[in-house]
Each structure stands twice: as C-alpha cells, then as structure tokens.
C-alpha cells in the first residue's frame, strides 16, 4: 500500500475524508479504520538479568483461536490515550541514550503505567490471529497455560510512543498557520508539514473493499501506534480540532472536545475553572453594558 500516493491525491483534489483513485473519482470512505483489540492476561516484566526489559502476557484462546475484539477507530480515543500516557511519563526516559541502554532502572511507576495502558487498550503490536494456538496444563504450576504468550521490548514501546507524540506535535504546530495571511510563517509550515508527511509513510495497514449498499473501504491496522498515527492523518485531512489539550495550567490533559468549543477537560477541577472564567467574563460583559 502506497500511503504517500494517497496524501498527494488528497492534496491535489482537496477532498476531505475521501480517498480517490488515480483518476480522481471513485470516492471511498477513508475513515473506516478498525483494529483488533487483544487483551493479554497477567502482564509481567522480564527478569532483570537480561539487557532489555520485556513486557508480556497470555492471550485468551477459544477454539484454538485468540480472542480479539474488532474496534472501529474513528474517534481519536487511542491517540488521546497515548498522548496522555506520554505526558504522564518522565521526559528523560524518552532520551535516545536512555532508551538504548535501557535495562532495569526504568522505574516501577513507569512500567505500571505502560501495563495499565496495555490492559485498557490492548496488546500494542501485531499478533497473527489466524493461527491456531495450543492450550495445556503447565507441568510446573498445574495451571492452564498456552503457547499464545506475547511480549514486546519496553524500549520499542517508548520509541513508538515518542513517534506518535512527535507526529501529533508537528501537526499541532502547523495546523493553525494560514499560509495566505501568515506569510512569514509559511516557510515554517512547509518544513513542518514535510517532516509530518514522513511519519505518514511509516503507517502500515491492510485494506479490504466491502460491497454492500455502497462500496466501502475498510482498513485494518495491527499496531496500535499506527492506529494513533492514522487518527492524526484523519485530523490532518479534515483540518479538525478534535483533539485538544486542557487549558487549565498544570493539567494539560488531552481530550476530545464535546461540544467542539470546550477548552477544559472533564476533570471536575478544570470544569470548575472553566465555569468560573465564564462567570467572570459574563459579569464583566454586563458591567460594560451598564
Ligand atoms: Zn484538565
């Protein structure tokens, strides 16, 4: 699948949320994106004797197949969750040298946050769900076990998480620059957009055309990081502000604003502040009217 081609076509025809073929017609819905959510049981960290830290767990098997829930990724929930996870981790763990030589010192709190995220959103990488897996009684523990044990290096997770954050930050930095009026910022926008588009080409997915009442294009993405990146692409294509960072200083939580003009997250503390500001504002307004 050639992602760059899609971007070019979109740029040229300026179509929103629509993918066209090379002739510029046959509109297919591009925002039907799904991903398999695979919940692993009892995540555990690899022992400290190895150089790299791994996190892994068992998938649940039913009739020899791994249970995976198909999730539609239209709302950028996954993206928001990853941005918030990034914000919640100390900045220095994302420094290259640290990630490269990462062994045991990654503090327990970070590991717990990563595990909590995986438990909520699923195993982050591709798993072959078409394969048959075995289930057996573990000779050592006498409990049910299976060969469907999956793991990933924490260092890889951190690099992928950092990429999602970087890609979103790029989009966020140029999305409000109007090339027509902000001519002095035009060069910056072009440079940032170029960097941004490089990230798009890293997204991999499979496509299926579904023919029912209409022709639909269904995309399946296996890496949850790629799902988040795809959600950024959807924001980019529609030019939307569907992801916001809470205005409350010290909160900075990312959220999906509903209604769209909401500027504070749903945390009661921030919500209160928003109301207070509104009251002060309307109070001031009545005063000037007097
Ligand atoms: Zn907030």
Overall description:
It is a single chain. By secondary structure, this protein is of the alpha+beta class. It has 2 domains: about 5-240, no CATH class; about 255-290, no CATH class. Helix content is about 40%, strand content about 20%. It has 8 helices and 15 strands. It has helices spanning about 5-15, 75-90, 95-100, 110-120, 155-175, 185-200, 225-240, 270-290; strands at about 20, 30, 35, 40-45, 55-60, 60, 65, 70, 135, 145, 150-155, 205-210, 215-220, 245, 255. The strands form 6 sheets. Strands 8-3-13-12 form a 4-stranded mixed beta sheet, with no helix packed on it. A hairpin with an 8-residue loop joins strand 4 and strand 5. Helix 2 runs antiparallel to helix 4 (about 110-120), helix 2 (about 75-90) crosses helix 7 (about 225-240) and helix 5 (about 155-175) packs antiparallel against helix 6 (about 185-200). The radius of gyration is 22 Å and the shape is globular. Zinc ion (ZN) binds near residues 248, 253, 264, 265 and 270.
Beta-strand fraction estimate: 15-25%
Contiguous helical run count: 8
Strand order of the largest sheet: 8-3-13-12
**Helical amount among residues, as a percent range?**
25-40%
SSE succession? HEEEEEEEEHHHEEEHHEEHEEH
- Shape summary: globular
Structural class: alpha+beta
What is the total tally of β strands? 15
The average pLDDT score comes to: 80
Which hetero ligands occur in this complex?
Answer: zinc ion
- The rounded Rg comes to 22 Å
Largest sheet: 4 strands, mixed
| Gap from first CA to last CA | 64 Å
Number of domains: 2
Give the low-pLDDT segments.
Answer: 1-29
